[in-house]
Amino acid sequence: MRVPTPISPFLLLLLTTTFFSTFTTATPRPSPSLPHRTLAGISVIDTPMVRDAQAYARLHCSPSTYNHIMRSWLFGVLHLSHDPALASKVDLEVHALGLMLHDLANNQSLSAPFITMDRRFEVDSAFAAADFIRSHPDGKKWPDYRVQRVWDGIALHAEPKLALYKEPDVFAIYWGNELEFSWDRPGGEQKGVTKEERERVLREFPRPTEGGGGGTLAFIAWWCRYKPESTYNTWMQPFGELLVPGYSAVGHRLIDRSLAAVGLNMSDILK
Ligand SMILES: *[C@@H]1O[C@H](CO)[C@@H](O)[C@H](O)[C@H]1NC(C)=O
Ligand SMILES: *[C@@H]1O[C@H](CO)[C@@H](O)[C@H](O)[C@H]1NC(C)=O
User: What is the residue range of the signal peptide feature (predicted)?
Assistant: First the structure.
């Protein structure tokens, strides 16, 4: 009788990795074959990469930003649990890293790691996340397209006009973060997440008791004041125009370039 050859752990890992990174359409997730744990009563993927990304976010983010990224991840997982068709197409590790690392450069200290003067914070965060993956022993084995999905998901997490038409991973990363804001906005999307589920997440990772909406506006105003170059032609620009004395995007806007190209400027047109 032939003795079956035991599958080496390495081969098993390779098979699992290949299966889950290549054929992401058939299996509802979280799959019992992927390790998972329970967080705030929610079943989440639990791999060394995911744990290390969480620790990395805790190290580099303030406690309130950390709680925000954890809520975003959990809201994202809840969204997937209410949308099996989407969930069947989402790579849960990419999804977890995209959400947990999306604010690495959202830091109001110009000397913090990952911050550049000209790039918007989403792009700085995307590069920081890609660097984290590339230097992680497991991440080194990731095919480029997975790193790219994390990069895109983070870079586009505040750009619905692009993110909503991207791959399911990028789309789902967008919604994880967006549900943090849209769930209780009048008429906002809830993506099936119930009040009870949301409250469980908020109990585990509470919001700051002070600041609220004003805190968010102060945060946006900070970028417009101290990193204005990174805000022109982005969703932040109108906030700067409204909130920051002396802020002006004139001369930096796409329209200024177009007008200059045909030898016109705004005052010529308004004449
Ligand atoms: C900014 O980065 C520093 C150093 O990594 C960290 O201690 C601080 O909590 C970060 N701030 C925010 C708002 O995440
Ligand atoms: C725009 O045109 C006005 C008059 O036509 C001129 O005074 C002004 O300097 C121009 N501005 C720029 C930025 O070229």
Answer: 1-26
Domain boundaries, the chain: 29-209, 210-271
For the question of whether the overall pTM of this predicted structure is more than 0.90, the answer is no
Tell me which DSSP letter residue 177 carries.
H
Residue-level pLDDT at 163: 97
- Sign of the torsion formed by the C-alpha atoms of 252, 257, 263 and 267: negative
Contact 44, 34 (CB under 8 A): no
Report residue 64 as tokens: 């309130």
Nearest CA to ligand 1 atom 5: 60
* CA quadruple 217, 221, 222, 225: dihedral, nearest 10: 180
Say yes or no: CB of residue 60 within 6 Å of ligand 1: yes
User: Is the Cβ atom of 61 under 6 angstroms away from ligand 1?
Assistant: yes
- Give burial (CB, 10 Å; 0-12/13-18/19+) of 159: middle
- C-alpha 104 – ligand 1 centre gap (Å): 9
Q: Which residues of the chain have pLDDT under 50?
A: 1-30
Ligand 2 atom having least distance to the Cα of 268: 5
Architecture of domain 29-209: Orthogonal Bundle (1.10)
Task: Express each pLDDT in 96-111 by its tens digit.
Answer: 999 999 999 999 888 9
- pLDDT confidence of residue 168: 98
